[in-house]
Structure prediction request, 263 residues.
Amino acid sequence: MPERRPPLTPEVARATWDQAAEAYAALQDSGNDYYRTEFFGPVQLEVCGDVGGLEVLDLGCGNGYLSRELARRGARVTGVDLSPEMIRLAEEREAASPLGIDYELLDALAVGDRFGAERFDLVTACMSLQDMPDIPGVITATRQVLRSGGRFVTCNSHPFSDTPFREWFRDEAGEKRALIVGDYFEATTLEYEWAHERMLYPFKTQANHVTLQQWFEWVTAGGFAVRGLREPRPTDEALAARPELLDARLVPYFLILDLEKRS
Prediction:
C-alpha cells in the first residue's frame, strides 16, 4: 500500500526519478515492463491514431519509450523530462538506434516558454502527468504549445484503483478476487516502493492522487474538451501471453484521456 507524503516538489521529483532511472530503463530493456508494452501502451498509441508527419511533444518522456514508438510511426518527436539521468538514457538509445528524436532536459511546466505558442500538433504524457508537482500549470502550458485543434493524450494510473488505502481480497487459493479501496476523496501525494523481483534494484517514486472529478475540472479549466476516455483492459491475447495481467481484468488500473484544445 502506498504511503502518504507532503506535496510533491520539482526537486523531489527530479531526485527520485534520477535515482530510479537505471532500474526503470532496465525493466523496459528486459521486456518485463509488460504492463506498458503489452497493455496500456498499445492503447495509448491507438488513441493517438495516425501520427505520421505530426509534430509531437512527449512530456515526462523518461528514457523514451513512447517517444520511440511515436517516431517509428512517422511522427517528428521532441521529448522532455526534468530528470538528467532519464534524458541521458533516452539520448543513449537514440544514439544506438536513431529515430530523429530531440530530447531536452526541461520541466514540463516550462514548455510554453521554451517552445512558444502553437508549435505542436499532439502532446503526449505516458504515466508522467500524475508525477508532476503542478498538474494544472502543465495542462495550461500544454494548451499554449498546441496548434488550433491540437490534442493532448495522457495516460495515468486510474484514481479509483490507485488510492491512499488499497488492499486485495484473495480467495482460499490466494487468487485476487476484489480490490478494497479507501480514502478516494483525499487529495494527497503517494509514495510507491518498487521492490519486486523484476527490478534491477529497489527505488521509490511519488505521484499525486486526486479524484476523477478533479482531473476533469483541471482539463476543462485548462482549455481542453474531452474527446474520449479509455480504461484499458487486457485483451485475451495479452492475458494468454501474460497471465500476470489477470488482476487488471478485475479493476481499472489506467485512465487515458483524449483531449482537444478549445479555440
